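re: ur question from yesterday

yeah so i grabbed the chain u mentioned. its 270 aa long if i counted rite. heres the sequnce exactly as i have it in my notes:
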Amino acid sequence: MSDNLVHPLTVICAGSCFAFSGLFYKLYSDKRQEVRKLKEIPNFQVDHHLLRILNASSNKRLHYVAVEGLVQANGEPISSQYVPRCHGVIQKITVHEHWKYWNSALKTWVSKKVNKQQTTNTVPFSLIQPGSYINDVSVRVDSPLEARGDYLEQVHKRLRQAKEGLMDAVVRELSGERPVALEEKEELLRVGSSITGFGELVLEQDKIMRLQPPKDGRSYILIPSDYKSFIQRHENSANMWKGLTALFGITGFALIGGLIHGAINKDKKT
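ran it thru and got these structure tokens back, copy pasting raw so excuse formatting
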């Protein structure tokens, strides 16, 4: 390849590396700022220390905190519809129909999900301290369906093939559509799972602590892990963007350095 072509390609590659490095640095900077803000949120375990702090606070209220504990149903939990001895406090069952439609333009059958049906059941629940045998301190979780976060665990998924007779096959060919399968999925917030909730914490007159959606507009969040693991995941994400920033930056400088070095050697030979 001639020098007339190599030099522009090298410059383009180096410029692309610097552009990606700048983009990754922006993502790194945003993530670091997010981690800093998360670390500023007061974090508590469900114990007597939290109860004392809340009791001493203004209006018996902490406007935005992170509270971590284990899920416990306030009464009878929900039993899984498909998994024996599996219990939870939030249950979501989703059913999808899989159909195929004849595409006359492509001359082929095209798959599509239709008729989504979703059922959600909840029972009141609280967070308790891990390892606690006497649950005299707990935090009730209000309005969990309003919370953001992927805190449900998939406990069942099954794809059942559709059954059709001779008449169904005839109708299918005439209409250009046919059922293929029925997909069932069940998700639970399981009893005993570790949860961290971000929201407003209030103390009621009967000494019951309650986590609820914040009144100041901040996000109400439930995450399926402890607070330390949650922060660690965000820090790992920040470090990934930091590493990519350095990698593409060094690569860009190496390309430019190689180009300059080659030009100097060429001048010396001439």
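noticed a couple things. The longest strand covers residues 87-103. also Residues 73 and 125 are 4 Å apart (CA to CA).
anyway ttyl
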